């Protein structure tokens, strides 16, 4: 049985996980699930990187011990991964005894096999604690870390060094012998160019960092966090220990590291060099993925633009989030995240093409055939379509080309929709003639078997929903081995079981309204595209949401966006119908500590508006106030309560909401227009 070892990077635990971390892990999980279904003996590893100055500092700042901080944050990663349906076989923490033993064993192996390649020298360099990397002065950009502009500090210490400079030729030879060692190709080329330009020796210990693994033979020093971290790939296999895991999966199988482009140098250059020095084989392959961007920048804690993957999974479901992340951009490229695109994908691809098609078909079948599946011929158009798609999906999955695989599935699903549209089986069902009945069976059998294949192909992406899909189709929830194409996949006569809607539609307007009411489903600062001030702001659009977010930003005390970013033409402003109104009734919205339900009089009509002002105003104190409302806002529901408009309010320096009201000394009838 082929052995397949797949790893994610181990995550820094100086902070909580975000969508970028989820991305790396989901991408690896999809491959692990795919390979298991291909019949491989898979070992899928993820974990947390817990040593180093970054953690030491974060713990000091939080007033905690490093161990307490890493315990807490490592748990947060585990909890997130379980929510995201990650099927890892092991979770390694670098503070575990087994890891420390493995890391020291690797160091010892380097010293035993290549004693000349380890030496001690006085070193002075610029250290970026955020990247845990030394830089030479010429590489700094404006005195900051060249990669992310983090602050750097001059560090002078006596360190252990690894003679990396000697490894350039051997690495280039390895790259030549293994043309697919690094994927995708353009990343491989970057690595080759970096190595061809010559390598400098690498400091691999720190004398100032206490939170680390002591260097064997020089216990006053700790291992540089990257040699510590990279050795997790071996320590989890019990390298230097008793079990056969290392022999089975590293030496006896295919080993693949999945990682982000920011850490390709460590994996593609340092790691194989360390392994060569220890006379150990390099991994089989490394797949380098791109970044999830937010507002055109890498999503990261230090830039403050993170999105909470757990909150997204709670709101939209883990399967939908997994699908979206793998569908939107080819693995290897960068991709931007926005809630809007996520919701659009869920509604169009999952709720409509997949869930709704299933629901309609099962409903029809329940009426016409008591839910029993008709036979389907392998010559039917959908059978042929699926037969073509099957090897393409499999090949794309093998090559980590997830988007290609999903695009392929989404050529089949709309084909089901078109066939139904054109053949109208609901009409055929009512025609008792044998020809119509035979045609009905052919269409329904074809469509449902195509859906069964979709559940098969999509299983690695959406394991829980595909299990549900299969259950409704009357198939076992656990998918079979991924094998040769066959048709039909569902035995004729199988009793289907129509169940709950697979993917409920998400109401974008309601989502935006929740943002407006200050109870966003995700972090408003980080989940929407930037404001495009040159365009009108259509209600319910991303720009509207961005404008709301700008409001939320200001309310949170952030500096206003630069004026040129938010200037609009007068025509745009005039699209917003502002009117005066008088509050005639007000009550708190149940189960919300923010929302108040108001009845307002606009002169010619009365309306209900829900506003997030309860913290600043007791409901009864609002009655009789003359306020300003946006009268032409699309109606929305906030916590299930309908709202037809929005009132205007400012936020003062203390963060309190201040209602905008009309001049109390002047008469102004309710409903008067404002400009
Ligand atoms: N601890 C090191 C890895 C050591 S592996 C021996 C590290 N940790 S990290 O937490 O900063 O990043 C871990 C992984 O998350 C990397 O693959 C990184 O690319 C990925 N991501 C972090 N932010 C990301 C995005 N915004 N987008 C996609 N992935 C990104 O580096």
What does this structure look like?
This protein is an alpha+beta fold and 675 residues long. Helices cover 42% and strands 18% of the residues. Strand 24 and strand 25 form a beta hairpin. It is flat, with a radius of gyration of 30 Å. Residues 520-566 have low confidence and may be disordered. Strands 3-2-1-12-13-7 form a 6-stranded parallel β-sheet, sandwiched between helices. Strands 17, 18, 19, 20, 23 and 26 form a 6-stranded antiparallel β-sheet that branches. The chain has a 4-stranded antiparallel β-sheet with strand order 5-4-6-8, with no helix packed on it. Helix 4 packs across helix 10 (264-277), helix 6 packs across helix 10 and helix 14 (381-398) runs parallel beside helix 17. The structure holds 5'-O-[(L-methionyl)-sulphamoyl]adenosine. 5'-O-[(L-methionyl)-sulphamoyl]adenosine binds at residues 9-12, 20-21, 23-24, 49, 229-230, 232, 259-260, 262-263, 291-292, 298-300. Residues 9-12, 20-21, 23-24, 49, 229-230, 232, 259-260, 262-263, 291-292, 298-300 line the site of 5'-O-[(L-methionyl)-sulphamoyl]adenosine (MSP).
């Amino acid at each position: 049985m082929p052995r397949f070892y797949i790893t994610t990077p181990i995550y820094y635990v100086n902070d909580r996980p975000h969508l970028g971390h989820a991305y790396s892990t989901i991408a690896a999980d999809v491959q692990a699930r795919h390979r298991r279904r291909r019949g491989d003996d898979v070992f899928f590893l993820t974990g947390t990187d817990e040593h180093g100055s970054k953690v030491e500092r974060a713990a000091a700042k939080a007033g905690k011990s490093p161990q307490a901080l890493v315990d807490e944050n490592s748990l947060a990663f585990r909890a997130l991964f379980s929510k995201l349906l990650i099927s890892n076989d092991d979770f390694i923490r670098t503070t575990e005894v087994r890891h420390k033993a493995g890391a020291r064993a690797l160091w010892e192996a380097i010293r035993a096999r290549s004693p000349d390649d380890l030496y001690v020298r006085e070193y002075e360099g610029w250290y970026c604690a955020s990247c845990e990397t030394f830089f030479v002065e010429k590489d700094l950009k404006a005195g900051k870390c060249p990669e992310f502009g983090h602050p750097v500090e001059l560090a002078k210490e006596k360190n252990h060094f690894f003679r990396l400079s000697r490894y350039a030729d051997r690495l280039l030879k390895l790259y030549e012998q293994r043309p697919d060692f690094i994927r995708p190709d353009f990343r491989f080329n970057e690595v080759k160019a970096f190595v061809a330009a010559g390598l400098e020796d690498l400091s691999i210990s720190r004398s100032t960092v206490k939170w680390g693994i002591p260097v064997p033979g020089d216990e006053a020093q700790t291992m540089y966090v990257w040699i510590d971290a990279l050795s997790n790939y071996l320590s989890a296999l019990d390298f230097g220990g008793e079990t056969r895991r290392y022999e089975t999966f590293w030496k006896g199988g295919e080993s693949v590291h999945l990682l982000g482009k920011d850490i390709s140098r460590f994996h593609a250059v340092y790691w194989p060099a360390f392994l060569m020095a220890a006379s150990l084989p390099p991994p089989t392959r490394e797949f380098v993925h791109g970044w999830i961007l937010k507002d055109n920048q890498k999503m990261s804690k230090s830039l403050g633009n993170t999105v909470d993957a757990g909150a997204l999974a709670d709101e939209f479901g883990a399967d939908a989030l997994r699908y979206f992340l793998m569908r939107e951009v080819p693995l290897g490229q960068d991709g931007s995240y926005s809630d809007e695109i996520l919701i659009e994908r869920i509604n169009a691809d999952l709720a409509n093409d997949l869930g709704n098609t299933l629901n309609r078909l099962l409903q029809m079948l329940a009426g016409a055939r008591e839910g029993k599946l008709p036979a389907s011929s392998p010559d039917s158009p959908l059978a042929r379509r699926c037969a073509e798609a099957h090897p393409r999906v499999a090949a794309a999955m093998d090559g980590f080309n997830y988007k290609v695989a999903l695009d392929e599935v989404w050529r089949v699903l709309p084909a089901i929709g078109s066939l139904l549209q054109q053949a109208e089986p609901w009409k055929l069902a009512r025609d008792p003639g044998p020809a119509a009945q035979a045609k009905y069976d052919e269409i329904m059998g074809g469509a449902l078997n195509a859906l069964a294949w979709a559940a098969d192909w999509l299983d690695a992406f959406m394991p829980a929903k595909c299990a549900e899909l299969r259950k409704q189709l009357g198939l076992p929830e656990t998918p079979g081995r991924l094998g040769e194409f066959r048709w039909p996949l569902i035995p004729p006569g199988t009793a289907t079981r129509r169940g709950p809607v697979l993917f409920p539609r998400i109401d974008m307007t309601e989502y935006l309204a929740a943002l407006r009411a200050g109870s966003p489903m995700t972090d408003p600062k980080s989940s929407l595209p930037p404001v495009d001030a040159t365009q009108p702001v259509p209600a319910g659009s991303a720009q509207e949401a961005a404008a709301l977010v700008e409001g939320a930003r200001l309310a949170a005390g952030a500096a206003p966006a630069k004026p040129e970013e938010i200037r609009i033409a007068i025509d745009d402003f005039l699209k917003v119908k502002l009117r005066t109104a008088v509050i005639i009734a007000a009550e708190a919205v149940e189960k919300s500590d923010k929302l108040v339900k108001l009845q307002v009089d606009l002169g010619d009509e009365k309306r209900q508006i829900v506003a997030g002002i309860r913290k600043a105003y007791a409901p009864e104190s609002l009655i009789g106030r003359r306020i300003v409302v946006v009268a032409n806002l699309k109606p929305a529901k906030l916590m299930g309560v309908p709202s037809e408009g929005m009132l205007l309010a400012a936020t003062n320096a203390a963060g309190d909401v201040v209602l905008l009201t009309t001049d109390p000394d002047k008469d102004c009838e309710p409903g008067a227009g404002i400009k």
